[in-house]
Amino acid sequence: MQDLRKMLDMQRALDLKALAATCPLTAGDYKTARYALPVADGAVSLELVAPQGTGHVDAGNEDVFLFVLDGQFSINGTGMTEGQGSKVSAGTAFDWSATPGTRLFAMEVTEAEKGEPGVVVIDPAAVMSPSNPPPAEYLTGPKPECQSAPAWRSCKGQFYGGTWSATPYYRKKVPYVHDEFMYLLEGCVSFVNEEGEKQTFKAGDAFLICRGASCSWESLEMVKKVYVIFRPTEP
């Protein structure tokens, strides 16, 4: 088993399923059965959650993205299974239930301008439209053709998610100015960080790249992913 300290290094991609299987995380109540992941500051909360049983959560002031890494998790009677994710909007109270062995990834951002409460599901089959490719100065080789289907944008535009796809491309090492969760629906992608470490992820993998990490991107085939991003606005 990999060393947990290395797995939590913010300069590399954090393999969320591997972390959920390795970190000291005891199943229990949704609000307390948690393991905090490293963050650049207090503007976002990134946690692994091991809910089991049933419970209730009062309405809060945060937008929370929940993704099922393993097991089954239900919000107000609507179930999510492995590979599914939803955003619970600020102001939403909910009842929950979880089967034994359920593991979630949770990404939480305070919402100062509350909208309508409710749950926004990221649909992997949503119809996508053309979107901008990475900046030309970051690319080595042909410009990819990209498509996306945004699901939401909240917290003054800082917190957003949806689905995205791209034809093969290579992007130079660039520093991430955002925290990004990714779940690969199709394809395979490799990252190389400043230390020269190469990490490769394939369809079915869920991982996180934190603000401040610098890495390249290489995909040799069409890639499609679920993404959720927290990009803080500059003061």
From TrEMBL:
Domain (S)-ureidoglycine aminohydrolase cupin: 156-227
A Pfam family hit: Cupin_3
Name of the protein this chain belongs to: (S)-ureidoglycine aminohydrolase cupin domain-containing protein
Organism per entry: Acetobacter fabarum
